[in-house]
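A brief tutorial aside. Many learners find it easier to grasp structure tokens once they have seen a single protein encoded end to end. The record that follows does exactly this for Endonuclease/exonuclease/phosphatase domain-containing protein. Read the sequence first, then the structure, and try to relate runs of similar tokens to stretches of the chain.
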Amino acid sequence: MQLVPTCMFGGDFNAHNIKWGSHKTTTRGKHLKSFAEKAGLDIIAPPTLTRYGLYSASFIDLAITKNFLYPYDINSVPELSSDHNPVIINFYFNYHTPKPDKIIKTNWKKYAIELCNLSAHPFHTVNNTDDLDKSVDSLTEEILNAYKNNSKELDPKIAKTNSKLRKIHTLRNKPKRDWQTTRNRAFNKLYNYFNNQAKNLKKELYHSEW
């Protein structure tokens, strides 16, 4: 069976497996699960039964996707007189991934030195709770200022601009795809090797920013 890099299909597979909600696992269900794992497919089942019957109620109407990473919802809808419910799956194609969080790097040594200099912070005489609140607010502001003075925002994409890291990412991604398709452990081992190299280089780039 030939599959394109990105696909989605569905139907009555008549394959029972506890993985997608059936009360038992049949031979066909085992084969479908095994095939999906080897081919890097995702099996999507609704939260409620798709077929009803005294002895045959089960989840056999499924959707299967590959590299189809959109948010979705799937439901078995009791709208026909058939013993099979229609299954409706909605994909949200207008979904936008959130922007990456800001990356803040702090020089903790300089921060600690500045905090030590705060030991001369003038504490006012505390006669009541208002005086206490003012002193706490003042000290808190000094601590936050010390943090800001010794921190800076980094571009989340800065690591990706490094040519050496881009090369490692390219070398890493191929065995990752091969592993997802074949489940050959040799590809997984090679992926982990390059992934560790990428992590170590990212750390070096991160620390070299100061």
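Self-check: The two ends are 53 Å apart (CA to CA). If you spotted this yourself, you are ready for the next section.
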